[in-house]
Amino acid sequence: MDSSQKTTSHNFLYIFWIILGFTFLGAGYLIWSQYQQIVFLHNQLILEQASTTEAILQLTTDKDVLTEKLNQTETILTETVDRLNAERDRNDDFEDQISQLAGTVGILDKVAKTDPELLQKYSKVYFLNENYIPANIKKISDKYILSNKGDQYFQGNALTFLTRMIDSAAKAGVDLKIISAYRSFETQSDLKGQYSQVYGTGANTFSADQGYSEHQLGTAVDLTDPTVAGTFLTFKDTEAYAWLQKNAYKYGFGLSYPEDNTFYIFEPWHWRFVGVDLATDLHRANASFYSWDQRKIDGYLVSLFD
Ligand SMILES: [Zn+2]
């Protein structure tokens, strides 16, 4: 190879290096610019992510706010419904109270019109005032009265119960007769006088003291049958007495002084009207009027003539 050929080959090499150099430079630039692009996109992505997270957070907050508002609305609604129901209940209560009040007024009126003496227990210590006269007294039809006993009177409202009882007994073949019913204080005093004459001081133990108040009330009656025809202890052995023991309560009557009572001597003939309610309850409890507490008895005043 000659020198000119050597120069040409050097030139080529030189050019080659230059081209190679530029190529590297170009490639380097490309890589750098790609890298820049990647960095840019990466940053962009981070930004996007951040804004998305923020958006999600915002949505979550919005959801929470909405949920809370919904809950609040629900609470308000529930409270309103509760208040409405409470109001309705109060109205119902008020209506109940009014009707109860009306009922109470009715009961009070009934009690006020019923003489409390009619269910009063009397004793030798506590007896009816001598001036007491029953407000409503009616004559008993003669057919119910034992012959020669004269006119007899009974408390007007209780009279129908008495006559129904005697009629009912008659239907069952039992002949009940009235010996004595309403007795005024004066009549009673006279009677006590008679008894005293016959029985001496022992008269105080029956007829006059305890029983008189009930007769003065107009709701007590002495009953007999024609075989005994008087206020005698033998009346307890009659069919009439057995019928009364079994049925008198249905007409509101009860034996004031039953056998073996601790309040007064046994008077099988002496029956007092105490109302069907009380007489029935006493009969069921196998108790007598005088064995029950006065306050308990007073509770029956309202239904005395039912
Ligand atoms: Zn009597």
Give a short synopsis of this structure:
InterPro entries: DD-CPase-like (IPR052179), VanY-like_core_dom (IPR003709), VanY/YodJ_core_dom (IPR058193), Zn_M74/Hedgehog-like (IPR009045). Helix content is 57%, strand content 7%.
Account of the protein in words:
It contains seven helices and six strands, in the order H-E-E-H-E-H-H-E-H-E-E-H-H. The chain folds into two domains: 1-113; 114-303, Muramoyl-pentapeptide Carboxypeptidase, domain 2. With 306 residues, the chain is an alpha+beta fold. The radius of gyration is 56 Å and the shape is rod-shaped. The structure holds zinc ion (ZN). Zinc ion binds at residues 211, 215, 220, 222, 270. Residues 211, 215, 220, 222, 270 line the site of zinc ion. Keywords: Membrane, Transmembrane, Transmembrane helix. GO terms for molecular function: peptidase activity. The chain crosses the membrane at residues 12-32. This is D-alanyl-D-alanine carboxypeptidase-like core domain-containing protein. InterPro entries: DD-CPase-like, VanY-like_core_dom, VanY/YodJ_core_dom, Zn_M74/Hedgehog-like.
What overall form do the CA principal axes indicate? Answer: rod-shaped
CATH architecture of the largest domain: 2-Layer Sandwich
* Broad structural category: alpha+beta
| CATH topology label of the largest domain | Muramoyl-pentapeptide Carboxypeptidase, domain 2
Rg, alpha carbons: 56 Å
The whole-number mean of residue pLDDT values reads: 86
N→C terminal distance:
158 Å
Portion of residues in beta strands equals: 5-15%
Low-pLDDT regions: 196-208
Q: How many helix segments?
A: 7
Domain D-alanyl-D-alanine carboxypeptidase-like core: 154-275
GO molecular function, one term: peptidase activity
InterPro entries: DD-CPase-like, VanY-like_core_dom, VanY/YodJ_core_dom, Zn_M74/Hedgehog-like
Transmembrane segments: 12-32
